[in-house]
């Protein structure tokens, strides 16, 4: 007898009875994969059915008490910042990242803090208990109320949770788990979806905080169906190059906090170390009196960060000049190059342009526009921007400079790190406090900024 199969879309998670080239729900091509249909009801599904039989009574929002503290600190301030002030009880958190980036190291390190007051169950599907013990010894993790279970069977894991009754459950990783109800291999679309659903029901029903590690595919997204990210409460991404020492933790989704926060870590021999001041890290080793570099101040959530933007322009040997951008959105960089050529009258169109943000971080804040334009103009004119200057401002298509938010915080951070000059837009929504040790220059357009800082009016200016 032929086994019945169903087809899942890896992008949206919709299920179909036959294969199609394009998913009717999300429109993606070649994303449907075949999985065997479930034959029996698993323990997780049985628990879900029992929960559905329990009658729920609607209550008014005002009658829900918020006296009990539902957040707790993980012991790592940078992780607490990204989570929105700490982990939430009964939440399901997905931590994704490339292999070797430090996902397991981070979650094992938080065990040494939270197991002092809470019971933690660490489920490892990729290592044995002995291997995990060796890694814990290297990281200096002391075994308090930390329990380890080397298992990949979902039903056995649920049995272990029932017998241990932990406050925090860590799954390493979701791609290694499998449910006996499905015949497909671990890591397949159906298995990832079924196991995550069981863990979500466990977290909501028992109040256990669940951390799940997920691997990423070659496109940089969490491996498995896209519905996986919709099911969890928080999605954290570990960014950075595994061969480099610095790591950046960002929240792509957070139901209990902001997604604009960023945590910075440095990979050491004994684990991940927090970097409380990323600006000093990003500006370390900055060249002095060198054309093509300018410092920008951007906001990452509630934290102002100073980052160095570098640009290199050289004469192109081809009809079409080359454009290479790292750390800034490519389309945004092309817009700024066009504004620089059209409004500032610098003929950058015949030059190859290379723009890079030092430190490997991504700048999404438009306040870095002015620093990018000044770096491009500095490289083109071969005149250095003053080493003690920070540029803040958004650039419009007409070459005007627009004000940005949190300007006072940016100026305070600029002065705190020892910079003496700052160039900002002329137009502001309200009066701001300017530190006494900081000399602030207000300009209206990019042409004026280039003239004030680099002493250039433009090649064709009268």
Short account of what is shown:
With 462 residues, this protein is an alpha/beta fold. The protein contains twelve helices and 23 strands. The chain has helices at residues 43-53, 77-83, 103-114, 129-139, 154-164, 189-206, 227-231, 278-283, 330-342, 369-381, 407-416, 446-454, and strands at 5-9, 15-16, 32-36, 71-72, 87-88, 92-97, 120-124, 146-150, 168-172, 209-215, 234-239, 246-254, 262-268, 271-274, 293-300, 303-315, 323-326, 351-357, 389-391, 394-395, 401-402, 421-425, 439-443.
The end-to-end distance, rounded to whole angstroms, is: 86 Å
Shape: globular
**CATH homologous superfamily label of the largest domain:** P-loop containing nucleotide triphosphate hydrolases
The assigned structural class equals alpha/beta
Biggest sheet layout? 9 strands, mixed
**Regarding CATH, which class of the largest domain?**
Alpha Beta
Unreliable spans are 48-53, 458-462
Strand fraction band?
Answer: 25-35%
Order the strands across the largest sheet as they lie in space: 8-7-9-10-6-11-12-13-14
Work out the helix count.
12
Task: Label the CATH architecture of the largest domain.
Answer: 3-Layer(aba) Sandwich
Enter the CATH topology name of the largest domain: Rossmann fold
Evaluate the radius of gyration: 26 Å
Summed up, the domain count is: 3
Total number of beta strands: 23
Could you tell me the mean pLDDT? 86
Helical percent range?
A: 25-40%
């Amino acid at each position: 007898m032929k086994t019945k199969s169903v087809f899942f879309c890896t992008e949206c998670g919709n299920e179909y009875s036959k294969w199609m080239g394009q998913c009717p729900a999300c429109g993606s091509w070649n994303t449907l994969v075949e999985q065997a249909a479930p034959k029996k009801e698993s323990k997780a599904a049985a628990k879900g059915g029992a929960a559905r039989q329990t009658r729920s009574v609607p209550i008014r929002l005002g009658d829900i008490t918020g006296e009990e503290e539902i957040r707790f600190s993980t012991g790592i301030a940078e992780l607490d910042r990204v989570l929105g002030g700490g982990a939430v009880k009964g939440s399901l958190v997905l931590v994704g990242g490339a292999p070797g980036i430090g996902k397991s190291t981070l979650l094992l390190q938080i065990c040494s803090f939270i197991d002092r007051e809470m019971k933690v169950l660490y489920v490892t599907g990729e290592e044995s208990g002995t291997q995990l013990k060796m890694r814990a010894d290297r990281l200096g993790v002391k075994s308090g109320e930390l329990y380890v279970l080397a298992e990949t069977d979902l039903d056995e894991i649920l049995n272990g949770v029932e017998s241990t009754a932990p406050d925090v459950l860590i799954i390493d990783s979701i791609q290694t788990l499998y449910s006996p109800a499905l015949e497909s291999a671990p890591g397949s679309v159906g298995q990832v979806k079924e196991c995550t659903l069981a863990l979500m029901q466990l977290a909501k029903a028992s109040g256990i905080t669940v951390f799940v590690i997920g691997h990423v595919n070659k496109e940089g997204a969490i491996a498995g169906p896209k519905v996986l990210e919709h099911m969890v409460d928080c999605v954290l991404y570990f960014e950075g190059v595994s061969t480099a020492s610095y790591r950046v933790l960002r929240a792509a989704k957070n139901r209990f906090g902001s997604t604009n926060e960023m945590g910075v870590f440095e990979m050491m021999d004994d684990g991940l170390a927090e970097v409380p001041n990323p600006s000093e890290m990003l500006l370390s080793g900055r060249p002095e009196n060198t054309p093509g570099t300018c410092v920008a101040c951007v906001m990452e959530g509630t934290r102002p960060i100073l980052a160095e933007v570098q640009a290199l322009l050289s004469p192109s040997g081809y009809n079409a000049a080359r454009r290479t951008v790292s750390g800034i959105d490519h389309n945004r960089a092309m817009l700024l190059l066009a504004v620089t050529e059209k409004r500032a009258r610098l003929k950058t169109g015949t030059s190859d342009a290379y723009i890079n943000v030092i430190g490997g971080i991504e700048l999404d804040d438009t306040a870095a526009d002015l620093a990018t334009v000044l770096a491009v103009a500095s490289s083109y004119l071969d005149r250095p921007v003053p080493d003690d200057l920070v540029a803040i401002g958004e650039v419009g298509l007409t070459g005007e400079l627009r004000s940005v938010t949190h300007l006072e915080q940016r100026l305070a951070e600029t002065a705190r790190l020892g910079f003496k000059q700052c160039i900002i837009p002329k137009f502001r929504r309200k009066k701001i406090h300017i530190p006494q040790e900081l000399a602030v220059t207000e300009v209206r357009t990019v042409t004026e900024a280039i003239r004030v800082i680099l002493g250039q009016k433009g090649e064709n200016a009268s």
